[in-house]
Fold these 3 entries.
Entry 1:
Amino acid sequence: MAANRSTTADRRAKIEELRRAEQARERRNRFLTIGLSTVVVLSLVGFGGWVITKENKEQEQQEAAAKAPIKDEKSWDAKKLGRNHVTTPVKYDMKPPVGGDHNPVWQNCNGDVYTKAVNDTNAVHSLEHGAVWVTYNKKASPADVEKLSSKVKKTPYSLMSPVDDQSGTIMLSAWGKQVTVDGAGDPRVDAFFTKYVNGPQTPEPGAACTGGVGADGQGGAGMGQ
């Protein structure tokens, strides 16, 4: 009888010991779960903060670039540049033109790269819509032409074409704005794009850059803006 009581007590003690061990494991697992969750949350919060900081910094840099003057940039009074729609040739005071009376149909400027000269009066209409027009003459190196082409193709509201009789090897034009650069790697290229692609100089912001005149010289459906 005493032996049975001893065996029962031993069994209860063993069961109690196993229960305490199981509770201890559960507590450790809870602590591990909480700890890992905390690490994950803190990591996500830290990463999110880094992304926001990075985005804010990039935005600040873009805003600063948009306000900074561009070395040797030429400007014309936008109010004095004609904006009439004409179907006759126009004599412009600068080459390439940066504004003035122009054709009723714009040159397509949705990142369009033309290997042949385009009509000035169509391109000027593109500038009125906020496009940046990249032009080059025969002195431009193939590497520079390729690099500029790549940039234009990735940039809506821009176009590129050769202008053999322009004074500078590479020139960038927007409505009332123009700069001659040393090469495709000149930092003023990025600065000009940042500042003037659909920039504050645009007479008709948000107007179309598609549906106009294409590489074949044929007009599209859009007219009158």
Entry 2:
Amino acid sequence: MIGRWLGAVRGALGFLTRLPVGFRDGDWEAFRVTPAAFPIAGLISGVLAAVPLLATETLTATTVALGYLLAVYAVVGIHHLDGVADLGDALVVHGGQERRREVLKDTTTGVGALLSVSITVAALALGGLGLAGLPVRAAIAIAVGAEVGTKLGMAALACFGTAVTEGMGKQFTDGATARSFLAPAAIAVATVVVPRSPLGAVALCGAVAGVGLPWYWANRQLGGINGDIFGAANEIGRIAGIHLGVIAWTLS
């Protein structure tokens, strides 16, 4: 049992991050059927990506924001942005569900992809600038909460979503059930309850809500989700969580 959980976490870190954890036989399969590995990977990657935020009270805000932006993509990689790019092209194309699904599979990069990726990176950078103006503990709580929250949102996609085509998304939805969402939810809640961080809880909730945006669009415009929606949800959820957390701090 413990071996399967460790394999699932290795599989999650290997798929969701750039951390050199190394794959072993069975890790991918263990991850695919263990949604609880999503928030665990989010906690690990969120803590590592938040390291530059330790300097919020010593370095300039722009330097810290740049450090956070670079740290996020150094830890989680840029492969999830491919989902943002494909979603951007699908958003602007004319036609019905079948046409939009075709665009998602197309490797050609259109203006929708360029704009969506640019907005996503800019939004994360601006979120990092907001974090850089906060006290260290508040900034880290929001950053970690947002990362855990967006991974919890991905777990929700796997547990409750319906895949529209064969591929990565279907591997996750076939490997999870609604009942299996209880474990990732409990793990995610524990990451903000144990340190008693209200800002982390706000960021977590904001990230989950952010994941709901591409999910809702995909159900209406595609008839279901796929791997690109998972990737796009990961990026959008993080941004939503960070910005909502910063807003909550400014209003407190």
Entry 3:
Amino acid sequence: MTTKEQVLTILLRHHGEWQSGDQLAQSVGCSRESIWKAINALRKQGHQIESRKNRGYCYLGSRNLDAKAIQIYGQRQFTGPLEVVAQTPSTQILAKSFLSHHQPQFAAFFADEQTAGYGRLGRDFYSPAKTGLYFSLVVPNPTNALVNVGLLTTGVAVSVLNVLQQFYPNKNFGLKWVNDIYLDQHKVGGIITEASLELESISATAFIVGVGLNLTTTDFPRELQARAQAVDPSMSVDRNRLAAALLSALVALSKRYATADFLPAYRAKSLVLGQQVTLQVGDSVVNGVAEDIDEHGGLVVRMLTGERRTFTSGEVIRVGLPV
């Protein structure tokens, strides 16, 4: 590692603690002048490092996404490619491009801003710079089978919600089937899962999981203001630390999602169970009462006729309105 990377590693591991210039120089094995130069270089990259005479340096966080910081916060357990870009049309596109040139493997792509971010059914996902966290994770599929794909999306939703709950312990997040994260009846995050298909064998070599979170966003377009909001505009979390926690949780989930052990937690956080719902399924609109999430992540609905039907695709477009 370079001197700058070594200094960043030490500061992040002692986040909020003071480290003297002598301590840093001794740990890295260089001069105090080299430490000073490294600190200045890190500051130029957006790292907030306070300095005081006779105390040294204290790491306070970062305004920018930084691949090295994400790796360090994650204790370098994520060993696949990890890329951070300032702007891209969509991190899903970055991930798909990667898969077109590489064998399936864990790989993560973060963007500070997306100019054409999208969710399910190709809907736009507003992704302004600095105020959100937008990333895609390539998840290799060793079996190539397409079964239980619904479980991956529901599992990711629970994992993301759990991590958010750790960073925002006073917030009460909920899940709207199948892929939306809600707070105070407004959407704060969305998830999309796409498959990298082998058409000849009708199998999936990998999945691409996209996550978009509105953290401090306040300037939503008019058409979104009634249904979208930020998690907390007044609370700035370190996005690199949040990114590392999410990567760790999603990689762990990807290795066990077929067990469906997260479904009780999904049901407990569901905003639709027990509610009258309207589903858009293709060109059809379906009304009924959402009764359960089945063992494959499907939504079980009791229709107006009394029949129970399970839906593995579609979108809940209304909740709690008369059917």
